[in-house]
Amino acid sequence: MVTTWRRETFGSRIGLVGIFDLVVFGGTGDLARRKILPALFKRFCAGQMPKPSRLIGAARTDMDTEAYRAFVRIAIKEFVDIPDGDDAALEAFLAQLEYVVLDARGDTGWATLQGMMAPDRVRAFYFSVGPGLFEDLACKLHQWNLTEDDSRIVVEKPFGRDLETAQELNAILAAHFHESQIYRIDHYLGKETVQNLMAVRFGNMLFEPLWNSQYIDHIQITVAETVGVAGRDVYYERAGAMRDMVQNHLMQLLCLIAMEPPAKFEPDAVRDEKLKVIRALDPVEPHHIVRGQYTSADGVASYREDVGNDRSKTESFMALKCHLSNWRWAGTPFYLRTGKRMEVRNSKITVVFKDAPHSIFGPEAGRHNNELTIVLQPNEGITLDVTIKEPGQGGMRLMDVPLDMSFAEALGEGSHAPDAYERLIMDVIRGNQTLFMRNDEVEAAWAWTDPLIRGWESRGDVPKPYDSFTTGPDGAAQLLRRDGREWRGLLS
Length: 492
What we know:
Blueprint: E1 6-10, E2 13-17, E3 20-25, H1 30-45, E4 54-59, H2 65-79, H3 88-94, E5 97-101, H4 110-116, E6 122-127, H5 134-143, E7 152-156, H6 163-174, E8 182-185, H7 192-203, E9 216-224, H8 233-258, H9 267-280, E10 289-295, H10 303-307, E11 317-322, E12 334-339, E13 346-353, E14 371-377, E15 381-389, E16 398-406, H11 407-411, H12 420-430, H13 439-459, E17 464-467, H14 474-481
Parallel strand pairs: 3-4, 3-6, 4-5, 6-7, 7-8, 9-12, 10-17
Antiparallel strand pairs: 1-2, 9-13, 10-11, 11-12, 13-14, 14-15, 15-16
Helix pairs in contact: 1-2, 1-12, 6-13, 8-9, 8-13, 9-13
EC number: 1.1.1.49
Active site: 249 (proton acceptor)
Pfam family, one: G6PD_C
């Protein structure tokens, strides 16, 4: 096991993975159990949690450190594939864990946590709790002198539910921390393929000259899930697909696809360009918005049954047609689509290039164009469709074939693409904010989103029903067909 400092190249910078204390508030919660703890264990196995670094769980649950280690052991074995009989790494990881019973709104546990903090190491505090506790935790950290100039806090979405609450939340955090200390985490930005968007665009001369409205017909961004909202019903009924997915995840994907090349691959340079994209978004006309709500099918409950509200007007599906008012993208539509209980689980971006201006092969050859598809999940990879001659005797018949790069195949079966949380947590320790959202970026996204939500609320719009495990309501297909286009299939 590597326990010394390790250098890693990150863009133009060298990131040092050194000794740290990571305190996870909500350390017994579902997010910690499913994502944070498994991610840290994998990074430990990769040599990125050197001794005497520590993970300190903090929660109201009454247990001691040994009981917490037993809790974490169960979580790791449930969510990480550890070969039978190979528990040495797990036991070594557990030895670097501690636990404190702590009340975010009272004084219980804070003196104990203060006594645990060691000098001369990075201190990071993960707010794996509801936003209602952010202010309490921020105040307590300063009251008990737990933070230093280079300490960091990590906050999970939702970053507010509208512009006003986002501004309030940012003000609360800014009262206690500098913006350089605040890491607003969106796990989509940690996905290997999402980061490859920038590599594909800015690392290949093949694409960048064509990356504009002169050559690109339109772009589709789809995030489809087969699960419903059961288990998240209280949150989701207040949020809906627009607040839960479009305002953050899909917005971030749109920014990475559409942004201008930053001067350098550095946090503020990248985030400056993303902010310009959000501010260039035009308001969306009502007829370019499709909202849906899944119904029961194949023995599963409907959305309204899942949330216990037979009059719910909250959308579980969203489709939008968006435009950017800038020189690069004038006239090129961006179609966004996301939904629960869809046909398959699939997240992808499809860049559809325009037809050749003149076909020398005649109408019998059909229409053919190039498409670049970036699959984010479940099978990460990139596909470029190119046109070739269909094999066989006779005339010139054309067909499209994919140049397919599956990451698992291209990099070898033994390769490990880090989980999004693995990369993002280690970026917090490194102090690299490139993949985290800035305060003005969050507020600009809400400033664009709020009028859309107010619009359908004032009109009293009701989401259109769609059968579970389909591609969504009919209106979503019509959104593209009116423009002579079609959604790319979820199964392909």
